[in-house]
Amino acid sequence: MKKIAGFMLALAVLVLLSCGGQAEGSLEAGETVNAVSADTLRKGPTVRRVLESCMPEAMTDGIVKVAVVLNHTEGDLSWRFTAACVSEGRSMGFTVDTFLTDGEHERCREIIRRIAGADYDGLILTHGGPDFTYSTLMPILDKGIKVVTYNVPLPKNGDSNSGLMPGITSTIRGDETLARLSLEAILSHFDESGKSPGSRPVRVIRAWFGPGIPELDLRQRVFDEFVREGKIEEVALVSPKDLSFARREVKAALTAALTRLPEGTVDAVWASHDDFAEGCADALYETGRLDIALVSIGISNDNIKLMLNRSAVWLCAAVEDPGLVGVVDMRLLAAKLAGETVPDTYVFEGKILKTASLSPTVTMANITVMLPDWGWDTGIFDQYPWMTELKTAESKYLRLSPVHSEESL
Question: Kindly report the CA angle at 337 between 334 and 342, in degrees rounded to 5?
Fold first, then answer.
């Protein structure tokens, strides 16, 4: 679900909150929205001293510069990830420039190519494609730029059977965990509600698209496992023809499927993506099929509102915090710049968000009320003494964090 106006307003506010203008080494105007920290050179000796001590190579020109490339569309998830990267980077005195490609691989290639020719110390990349990631990132690595990725398949030598591409730290969404949590939630609902089907499997409509999208393929793998084990039975598959209109097309597909599946023949709908879930919720309500439960994967502010409006069917969502991903990716990149030993991979685990626990005041910004571990206060790659010293020194220069000001936008 695109929220272009809101996203651009949020990024504009990020620019106003930052204390600098166009960053040195940034790309051409119109292709980038900068979220730049206050110039490190104006911050006095303490921040410079710590940065020069812990990451001297990056500080040869007096400032640590990080590029964040989101090969993704605009929306709540992109906003929260971007704001988290910027906030965490600024807390350590970095300049952080962000680039959004709207999911266009060729544009992503071009931006990364030009980043390699600019003067950046680190790169965070999300949602790359296996068909271009290896060749695109090699010039970055050859230049000595440190790289952390999120949901980017990175086979060594471009060969998917040869292991991970060396020199890159890859963070991964726990898609299989999210799928397992969501499917187990369906089974638990029927056990706890007293509507258990007994010896037969739970009859499920699958809302999915593929193959070819890694995250959905991984989720499908777990669904197939539940089918093989006799826990669920797939009674229909609904898919959008065009992902740009996923909500509308999944709604139409499910509406058509329900005409062939009378009441009593379907127990639940499993929506493997949050956009699919919105279409499913619309279809169930408009056809009056409140006998069917809906469980989904993914979350956004639009999802939260619709979960409340469609609470009679939408039970819960298996979710992951994109803000936590942004913060952890920036911490890992900082650790690489400081020469720390970090893992080659890190997998984020999801949680179940129940509709019954929501209220009209809940948003992506304050959802921690329902999910105590949602967020990034402490505990994940933040135990480096130099990082604590940096944040303490930098804190007196910060006035407002864009992550925590989301509600004011």
Answer: 70
